[in-house]
Specification:
The complex is a heterodimer of chains A (199) and B (314). With 199 residues, chain A is mainly alpha-helical. Chain A has helices spanning 6-21, 25-47, 50-67, 77-99, 115-120, 128-147, 150-161, 166-173, 177-194; strands spanning 105-108, 111-114. Chain B has helices at residues 6-11, 13-17, 23-35, 37-54, 62-81, 85-103, 176-185, 192-203, 209-221, 225-235, 242-254, 258-268, 272-275, 278-290, 294-306, and strands at 114-118, 143-151, 157-164, 168-172. The longest helix of chain B has 20 residues, at 62-81. The chains are: A mainly alpha (199), B mainly alpha (314).
Chain lengths: 199, 314
């Protein structure tokens, strides 16, 4: 079977977007399915709250649905979608900074959940000392992430956890690659400084 | 190519780690690393720091993704069954401008007690415009319908016309005319927008039994999901009342829209400690049997498990 090339995927996506713009529900659903895991992961990483991530997911795709007709292929769909998601997340982070709401434990469908402990649970070590160390390390990282500026936090998340290139991060955030690079530098410096005695 | 110092090399470690160096830059750092044991060790430590960052990576649980997808599907469905956003905006704008023009914008404010009502009878068929002209002998403005035509003995033609005249009534919900017309408009099968607007005005007064009945009727019978959702908003504060609980239970079990069923289960279980009676348990058990929506099944299952009730009907 012939391998699907990047171009094939691009053409496929363009066709999907055009069909969705014409009101094809299946095409829209396929578009959602193509990106929704990474959207949810990004929101979860940025907001560290399943409820907030869920809200961002809903709002982002509803906005895409309402505004898809105005998408003119000036940028990739991925960039357009991530622009929406990152704006929603930035708003949420800024609101939190104002409200000073940074509760660690949140209620979820599965019961109370520590945002960071829960996400690292699958990797939990069986060695008690190691587990204790991992827990302390995660808490420290969480503190540092919370102390980054919203922009630093965003760039760090997009680069480190989403694996996006600085050029694309610049496009998503409406800034230059150089500015994104400077932002990432500040974020990693702060992270490294805070974790100095751990690693 | 100039020789790279240790300081230069170390300042590039983070970009090397992220793969953001150009081919040439990367080559220079790696050449330095090959030749410098101290920097190699430093780079290994740097990599450990970046690996440590990874311990905080969040992976959403699969159940959250499923829940998000189910909610999105129902919200999209609700949006599609509601009037188009543009139409809603136009309607809303028109209504606001109209009421503002009539009331100067301030009469509506005190306690939200005053409702304005303008009812047009859209079902009536319009006569051709010339019938409204004075020459035709029908001078009153309004919507008209020809009921009968016949030739009179004097050679003239007699036309029997039904006239439906528009009037503007103003008053509060304590005015029985306003209240009655609003309750009637909330059931107008020809205009979902009118029903929606009427229910919005009635919602704030759901403490009255007749208004609550109208909201329950809309919840159970309205064809439009947006109207049903609106009715549920008005009933929210009365979710503990037996007749409202009954209607919500029926909605939970039979409404075709999963978004509305989700709202129904939220209202039914918002005071779960006090309202988990046997009937409610039965409803949730029945839901487990017939519900296709995974999120709703999970919600139901968790509630039943929380009160140590069986998730099945024996």
């Amino acid at each position: 079977m012939a391998r699907e090339t990047g171009l094939d995927v691009q053409i496929d996506e363009t066709a999907l977007i055009r069909a969705a713009q014409q009101g094809d529900h299946d095409a829209f659903e396929r578009l959602v399915r193509a990106y929704d895991q990474s959207v949810l992961r990004l929101a979860m990483n940025l907001l560290r709250s399943p409820e907030d991530a869920r809200d961002v997911y809903q709002e982002a795709f509803l906005r895409v649905h309402r505004n898809l007709h105005s998408f003119r292929f000036d940028c990739s769909f991925h960039t357009w979608l991530y622009r929406i998601v990152t704006n929603l997340c930035l708003d949420q982070i800024r609101k939190r900074k104002v409200r000073k709401e940074e509760a660690t434990v949140v209620a979820t469908g599965e019961g109370p959940l520590d945002r960071l402990d829960a996400v690292a649970e699958q990797r939990a070590d069986t060695d008690p000392e190691r587990r204790l160390f991992s827990g302390q390390l995660r808490r420290r990282i969480k503190e540092v992430l919370n102390n980054l500026t919203p922009r630093e936090r965003m760039v760090f998340e997009l680069r480190h956890y989403q694996g996006l290139r600085l050029k694309q991060i610049g496009e998503i955030l409406g800034t230059s690659e150089e500015a994104a690079k400077n932002c990432l530098f500040r974020a990693t410096q702060k992270m490294r400084a805070a974790l100095g005695d751990f690693v | 190519m100039s020789v790279m110092t240790c300081a230069d090399a170390r300042s590039q470690f983070w970009l090397l780690e992220y793969g953001e160096l150009s081919f040439d830059e990367e080559e220079r750092v790696e050449t330095h690393l090959d030749a410098c044991a101290d920097c190699r060790a430093a780079f290994e430590r740097e990599k450990e720091v970046y690996a440590a960052f990874n311990t905080a990576a969040a992976e959403p649980p699969p159940s959250l993704l499923r829940q998000c997808r189910a909610e999105l599907a129902s919200r999209l469905e609700s949006e599609e069954h509601s009037p188009a956003p543009d139409a809603r905006r136009v309607f809303s704008g028109w209504w606001e401008q109209f009421t503002h023009a009539l009331t100067g914008g301030f009469i509506l404010r005190p306690a939200g007690a005053l409702a304005m009502l303008v009812l047009g009878f859209a079902g009536a068929r319009f006569m051709p415009n010339f019938l409204n002209s004075p020459a035709a002998g029908v001078t009153e403005a309004g919507m008209n319908r020809v009921r009968d035509v016949k030739a009179a003995a004097n050679g003239q033609i007699q036309i029997l016309v039904d006239e439906t005249r528009q009037r503007t009534l103003a008053g509060g919900l304590d005015d029985s005319r306003i209240r009655g017309l609003l309750l009637e408009a909330a059931k107008d099968p020809s205009d979902a927008g009118l029903r929606q607007q009427s229910l919005s005005l009635l919602n704030a007064h759901a403490q009255s039994a007749d208004i609550r009945d109208a909201l329950i009727y809309a919840l159970q019978h309205d064809q439009n999901a947006g109207v049903r959702l609106n009715a549920m908003t008005g009933l929210k504060a009365f979710a503990a009342e037996p007749e409202v609980r009954g209607a919500l239970s029926q909605t939970l079990l039979s409404d075709p829209n999963p978004g509305i069923r989700m709202q129904a289960i939220d209202l039914l279980t918002q005071d779960s400690a006090t309202n988990m009676d046997r009937q409610m348990v039965g409803t949730l058990q029945e839901l487990m049997l017939r519900e296709d929506n995974e999120y709703l099944r999970q919600r139901s299952q968790k509630i039943l498990e929380a009160i140590n009730a069986s998730t099945e009907i024996y």
